[in-house]
Structures are given as structure tokens and as C-alpha cells.
Amino acid sequence: MAISVVIADDQEMVRTGFRMILESQPDIEVLADVVDGEAALAAVAEHRPDVLLLDIRMPGLDGLEVTRRLSGSDRPRIVIVTTFDLDEYVHAALHGGASGFLLKDASPAMLVEAVRAAAAGDALVSPAITVRLLRELAPRTPPAGARRPSEPLTERERDVVRCLARGMTNAEIARELYVSLSTVKTHLANVQAKLDARNRVEIAAWAWESGLAATTT
Q1: In what helix (H) or strand (E) does residue 102 lie, and over which residues does it extend?
Q2: CB within 8 A of 202, min separation 6: which ones?
Q3: Does residue 217 have a pLDDT over 60?
Q4: How far apart (Å, rounded) are the C-alpha atoms in residues 137 and 98?
Q5: Which of 26, 54, 76, 152 is deepest in the core (most CB within 10 A)?
Q6: Residues paired with residue 51 on neighbouring β-strands, in sequence order
Q7: Residue 4 in contact with residue 10, Cβ under 8 Å?
Q8: How many CB atoms lie within 10 A of CB 163?
Q9: What is the H or E stretch that residue 131 is in?
Q10: What are the pLDDT digits (tens) for 21-56?
């Protein structure tokens, strides 16, 4: 079945470009493109897409509020599209449960890959955003109230999370740690459960906030 997508962005040129890129793929279907947050919520309610491609700055409801309102378990996967000078907004969207982040000038291949990853329950984050964003916005010392895992992470799980926090894909982590791809996925699933995290982006955020990403093995 095709991956269904709704695009929300107040710039017509951006919407048109994204639609053309996504509709050129045989496994992706764009159900609607809308100009603001209210219209995005209405389109999600009407079409129930798999993925919502969402701008942050829009008239009326911005992308952060839309993300917060779509916090239920049956919501679409949200991929935030931003410009690099909006780091603080992306950080807030991450905590709201967004599944991915892209720069507006991301390549067509990156856009398609992000939509497919989100639909599969994974997350693709442009390394240009992720590592710099999370490193810069993480506290210099771990806050006293930082989330604690339900069980301590194993040393190998910690290694996997450090790689993830540096923006590596599962395949890159497997090569870095000399383990199989399935082993990486198993470790990440275990970490996600221990942190009660919604996705790998939230795991990466926790790694920077807790100080784990800044440590070395």
C-alpha cells in the first residue's frame, strides 16, 4: 500500500515542490497540501495520513502546536521541515514527538527517505540539524530531573546510543561497532523501552541531555 502524506506549509512553492517530489515515487501518495496549522489538523482528521510533513512557522497554529495536538497514539508520523535558524523550535518539536527533521533545502532523495522512514516507525534526521542542534541545546551539565531509564543501559546499549546521538544510521552503527544490523535494532528497541521513548530522535535527545553523548568509551 502507498504511504499517504499530507503537506502543511504556508509557502506555495515549497508545497508544490514537495508534492512533485513525493508523487514521483510509486509508493507515496499525497492526499492534500494545506497552508496553515488549522488546515493541517482538519486534513489529518479527514484523510488520516500515515505521515504529516509539517512546517514550523505558519499562520495561526504553528507546527509546534499542531505537533502537541496530535499527541495521541493514532496520530500520523510527523516530519518537521525547518530552516537552521529555528533550532530552538525544532528542539521543542522533538520533545513533542516528531519523527524526523529536514532542512527545507534537503535533497529530493532525503525528503523521500524521511517520509519512508517515518511511515516505517523509524526516524530520519538530517545530520546537519541533529548533531549540532542537540549538542548546542543540551545542558552543560545533566539536569537533576533528567529522565532515568527503567533499567540501567548495558555498555553495548550505551555504545549504540552514543553513535545514534552523533547522527549515524543503523547501518553505520553496525559497521562502527562490528555488529549485525539486527543486533543494532535489538539494542535500540531495548533502549527505547527502558527510556519509554517514542522514537530514535527522542533517544538521541536524551543522550545529549543526560551527558551520555559527550562521554567516550
Answers
A1: strand 100-103
A2: 94, 95, 97, 195
A3: no
A4: 17
A5: 54
A6: 5, 77
A7: no
A8: 22
A9: helix 127-137
A10: 999 999 999 999 999 999 999 999 999 999 999 998
- pTM flag (> 0.70): no
**112 alpha-carbon distance from chain centroid:** 14
What is the distance between the alpha carbons of residues 200 and 184, in angstroms, rounded to a whole number? 12
Residue 125 DSSP class: B
Q: Is 211 left (phi over 0), alpha (psi -120 to 50) or beta?
A: left
- CA 160 to chain CA mean position, Å: 18
Residue 20 exposure: Cα atoms within 13 Å on the Cβ side: 8
User: Side chain identity at 91, as an amino acid letter?
Assistant: H
Query: Which cell numbers hold the place of 31?
Result: 492526499
Where would I find the H helices in 150-199? 155-165, 170-177, 181-195
User: 171 is written with which cell numbers?
Assistant: 547501518
C-alpha cell belonging to residue 181:
544490523
